[in-house]
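Notebook p. 47: complex prediction with coproporphyrinogen III.
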Amino acid sequence: MIAAGPLQGANHAPSGASAAAKPQGLGDHPGGLQNDTLLRALRREPTPYVPVWLMRQAGRYLPEYAALRAKAGSFMALATTPSLATEVTLQPLARFPLDAAILFSDILTVPDAMGLGLSFAEGEGPRFARTAADEPAIRALRVPDLAKLRYVFDAVGEIKRALAGRVPLIGFAGSPFTLACYMIEGGGSADFAAVRRMAFARPDLLERLVSVNADAVAAYLCEQAAAGADALMLFDTWGGLLTPDAYRRFSLASMRAVIARLPREVPTIVFTKGAAATLDDIVQSGASCVGLDWTMDLREARRRHGARVAFQGNLDPLALLTDPATVERAATEIVAAAGPAPGYVFNVGHGVVPATPPDHVAALVAAVHRASRVTGGASGTPPRAVQQRGGD
Ligand code: CP3
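Predicted complex, structure tokens below:
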């Protein structure tokens, strides 16, 4: 059995920072953040408890999301209308005392703005009207006019105003390589065969595509930060498809180039799914924090690299399909595996799946806070669920 609770809490404690303390160094929030545990953990500063947010915390497992999506007519209508994107972003925060909001959008808005024509057919996943799979199409690609993505920056601003400093807002983009996967295939794929073939047959072309994407993603993320995003995350869902050498060449190098161009004061998270073999390289990406999927060893990652980067993860999202007691046990074990040192953010190892019962998410968030909290200290009281303003 793995010990939890006081052991964890005592060790997360000594900052003296309460959840309501005024954060320092958050220049673009004159009022400060009421809950800055996420930002502190990303900077490997002590926190009174382990902050938790979940990939896909807004989405189809929430009935209020399904209702709003039906009303809006499509995923893209939600994503491109700042008031609706704001409402969806806040939905999970009204239910659960999460320690961060994540912008409601999608990684594929960037290739859409590059002219590929994105759509999401009901129950089918993303589709591009045009691909970037051959030399002429790839050579014709340009960094998009960021005005085409204004709806994203407007959403960031509106979400920040609606949050009113209650929790930080995470902005995000797809990694240059993961975007290339969808651009080459024209949508999702079981094996991304065309991409893997190109890595061998035309590495120069793949490199060119990834490099345009890196320029686009860097500009896009800088603009999200300028609009108010408090932290920035790169989703590299498909980097783990590559050989370790190809991963370093086509995915990691371009993520490093992106991160180097982001404002230094904004903490960053990189998440490559299925990349246990290259963890020693990923921790040198320049990001503040490395996200782990559930196949990776959090305890070992923290032991080896915890002095260099923060870690985020890594509950198998399928654990949320069991029952509250099992969810609580699994969460407590992960908090124990993460250990007491600062620099840890709880998350799932990939997105919350649509069949997840919302009650199980409530049990998860409570268990993470309980298992990591300072026992007996007022500073260890996690926040209550954020109320949405104005009944919108
Ligand atoms: O995490 C969040 O809550 C923020 C919003 C967010 C979405 N997509 C909303 C979304 C984020 C961060 C993403 C990232 C994303 N999008 C990734 C990287 C992370 C990952 O999940 O691997 C990828 C690969 C995509 C591309 C994408 N978008 C796919 C493959 C699909 C269809 C399959 C699926 O998982 O739903 C989407 C659609 C999408 N993006 C939905 C949501 C809530 C579902 C849309 C709907 O049908 O209502």
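Notes: The longest strand covers residues 169-174. The two ends are 45 Å apart (CA to CA).
Next step: compare against the earlier run before touching the bench.
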